[in-house]
């Protein structure tokens, strides 16, 4: 195997000032991060959930009580505990309480169907599930097909300030609407988490998981097939939180991080929960993304850092402009999960006066692997540079043992302390994804620029092959987004016999769009794209299917068409 040119020890030309190329990963469990935050910043607000503040001292007490509850439910080291709930204080407590016992957190999307939950719960072998009230009926429906011994209900309203809880009881439409959104019917024999925690004696038995122990089973989004669980150790998550702290150069005890990304997604869990505790930040927790709710929280507790996906940044910036709201406390934001449009980046930076930098990662990399500098050197449209202690290779798409020449496109491989251990109970898929030497195949086609910046071209599995030519959907989409009247677009391939596939553009139009048809779309695309990449069919949709974090699901679009 040739020595990859991208593995040199010299810093890339675009490397951010003051950031070391490598960091030493401490041999400690994830819970050490919370222990230090409590020791050094006990009276700092750790969690703000819709106005109810919990200090780090109070959070530690709740975690110890939560650990006692789980212990009495039979949870021990290595056991899996399923968390099926939106962002809330209880979610934060349950996450750390599970790790406190040396057990394994298994995150689930609380909006999943009973079938989807049954698959994941059975796959993980979880014995206890802490479940949002609205999801309890679906988990109970799935329970007989799993190893679950206990289902505990989580009442979101229990985490609200006392006055807000009281207001939910008022016989008015607004209170009924809010109550219906937060709560749900629960059978009488299902215990409630908040009541158990209140009554519990703190669990003070010393436990210290090994850094090599499994901390988290994080299910992938399933955009390329059936969701599978990535196995992440304490060391993986400790490493990624340290890499993030090194990259952002955040001072402990100074940041206010807005948790608008769901904790059950790798991006939200690491940036908003693990990294934030490492730097003893105040975490402003929101159960779902709603621009008006974010602006209300901003008036109460101004944020400094917002991890988000591009649609969130766009909607929040637009809402702030309309309301005349002040977002200038946000010094920086990290955008991920999908390409950041230049127009969105410019709008966000105009409204906040801060910086938005694109990052790149996967569930399998805990999740952040590359990032743009948090400075004027950031480059919209680029994935950025490898994080500290992270190495990359760009290899032939058909032969991952062969590195491509500098400047050529190929599949991105990643190596580093944040790379996962494999897929839970899936040795064959693990062997395909993890190559010799710990190199992770990403399935993403990229190119490295002269200054070390890496540019994403597309996903290998979503690439369209038409008449022997390769078409990258994101390149067609990027061009079409600039067409007047086109609000959003997803480009997919459809079977075309001997031709392989035809390019199909599924578009969402502006309300006042006129004259957008296949002919005009092809004419617009001819200015920038090769003829074989021009859409052969145009489909107008009211909206595009998206994941929980707003990423367009091309697979779903293709299946629907």
Structure notes:
The chain has 561 residues and is α/β, with parallel strands linked by helices. The protein has two domains: 16-444, Rossmann fold, CATH 3.40.50.12780; 463-560, GMP Synthetase, Chain A, domain 3. The chain contains 17 helices and 25 strands. The protein has a six-stranded mixed beta sheet with strand order 6-5-3-4-7-8, with helices on both faces. A five-stranded mixed beta sheet has the order 11-12-13-14-15, sandwiched between helices. Strands 16, 17, 18, 19 and 20 form a five-stranded antiparallel beta sheet that branches. Helix 3 (89-100) links the parallel strand 3 and strand 4. The two termini are 43 Å apart. The model is unreliable at 1-8 (pLDDT under 50).
Task: Characterize the main sheet.
Answer: 6 strands, mixed
> Helix content range of the residues, please?
25-40%
Q: CATH homologous superfamily of the largest domain - what is it? A: ANL, N-terminal domain
Number of helices: 17
InterPro entries: AMP-bd_C (IPR025110), AMP-bd_C_sf (IPR045851), AMP-binding_CS (IPR020845), AMP-dep_synth/lig_dom (IPR000873), ANL_N_sf (IPR042099), ATP-dep_AMP-bd_enzyme (IPR050237)
Domain AMP-dependent synthetase/ligase: 35-424
Domain AMP-binding enzyme C-terminal: 476-551
Protein name: AMP-binding protein
Describe the structure using short key phrases.
6-stranded mixed sheet; 561 residues; 23% strand; GMP Synthetase, Chain A, domain 3; single chain; 5-stranded mixed sheet; 17 helices; 2 domains; Rossmann fold; globular; disordered N terminus; alpha/beta; AMP-binding_CS
């Amino acid at each position: 195997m040739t020595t990859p040119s991208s593995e040199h020890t010299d810093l890339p030309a675009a490397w951010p000032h003051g950031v070391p190329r490598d960091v030493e990963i401490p041999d400690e469990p994830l819970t050490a991060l919370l222990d230090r935050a409590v020791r050094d910043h006990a009276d700092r607000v750790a969690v703000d959930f819709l106005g109810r503040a919990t200090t780090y001292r109070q959070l530690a007490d709740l975690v110890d009580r939560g650990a006692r509850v789980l212990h009495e439910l039979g949870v021990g080291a290595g056991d899996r505990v399923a968390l099926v709930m939106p962002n809330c204080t209880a979610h934060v407590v349950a996450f750390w309480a599970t790790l406190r016992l040396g057990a394994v957190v298994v995150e689930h999307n609380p909006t999943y169907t009973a079938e989807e939950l049954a698959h994941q719960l059975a796959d993980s072998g979880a014995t206890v599930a802490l479940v949002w009230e609205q999801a309890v009926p679906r988990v109970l429906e799935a329970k007989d097909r799993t190893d679950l011994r206990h289902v505990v209900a989580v009442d979101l309203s229990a985490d609200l300030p006392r006055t807000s809880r009281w207001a939910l009881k008022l016989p008015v439409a607004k209170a009924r609407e809010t109550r219906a959104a937060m709560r749900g019917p629960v059978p009488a024999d299902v215990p409630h988490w908040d009541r158990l925690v209140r009554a519990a004696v703190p669990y003070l038995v010393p436990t210290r998981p090994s850094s090599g122990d499994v901390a988290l089973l994080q299910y992938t989004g399933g955009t390329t097939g059936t969701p599978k669980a990535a196995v992440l150790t304490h060391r993986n998550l400790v490493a990624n939180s340290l890499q993030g702290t090194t990259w952002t150069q955040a001072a402990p005890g100074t940041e206010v991080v807005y948790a608008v990304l769901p904790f059950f997604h790798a991006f939200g869990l690491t940036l908003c929960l693990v990294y934030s505790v490492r730097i003893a930040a105040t975490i402003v927790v929101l159960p779902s993304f709603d621009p008006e709710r974010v602006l209300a929280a901003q008036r109460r507790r101004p944020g400094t850092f917002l991890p988000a996906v591009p649609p969130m940044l766009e909607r929040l910036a637009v809402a702030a402009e309309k309301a005349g709201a002040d977002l200038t406390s946000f010094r920086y934001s990290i955008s991920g999960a999908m390409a950041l449009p230049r127009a969105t980046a410019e709008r966000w930076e105009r409204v906040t006066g801060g910086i938005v930098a694109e990052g790149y990662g996967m569930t399998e990399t805990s999740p952040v692997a590359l990032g743009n500098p948090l400075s004027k050197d950031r480059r919209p449209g680029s994935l950025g540079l490898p994080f500290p202690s992270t190495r990359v290779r760009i290899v032939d798409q058909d032969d991952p043992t062969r590195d491509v020449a500098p400047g050529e496109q190929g599949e991105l491989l990643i190596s580093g302390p944040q790379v996962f251990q494999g897929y839970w109970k899936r040795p064959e898929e693990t062997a395909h994804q993890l190559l010799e030497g710990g190199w992770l195949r990403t399935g993403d086609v990229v190119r490295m620029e002269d200054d070390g910046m890496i540019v994403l071209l597309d996903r290998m599995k979503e690439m369209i092959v038409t008449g022997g030519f390769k078409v990258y959907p994101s390149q067609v989409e990027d061009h079409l987004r600039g067409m007047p009247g086109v609000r959003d677009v997803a480009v997919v391939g459809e079977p075309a016999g001997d031709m392989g596939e035809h390019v199909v553009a599924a578009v969402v139009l502006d309300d006042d769009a006129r004259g957008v048809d296949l002919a005009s779309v092809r004419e617009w695309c001819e200015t920038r794209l090769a003829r074989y990449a021009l859409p052969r069919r145009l489909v107008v949709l009211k909206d595009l299917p998206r994941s929980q974090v707003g990423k367009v699901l091309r697979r779903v679009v293709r299946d629907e068409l």
